[in-house]
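Handout, section B. The chain below has 55 residues.
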Amino acid sequence: MKRVALLLILLAGCGADGEPVQPTMAARVGIGSSGAHAGGAVGLNTGRVGLTVGF
């Protein structure tokens, strides 16, 4: 978890020179034979570099 936080901080710092940092978020809900489940992802994109973490 500390590594993920460090990567997010580094990516946010990359946008300090004027390159916009774009946050992303996705959520999903599925229903199957075993019941309902939920999940999602959050991330940061800056230029050609992106980091996404799913849960």
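Note. Residues 2-54 form one domain. Compare this with the example in section A.
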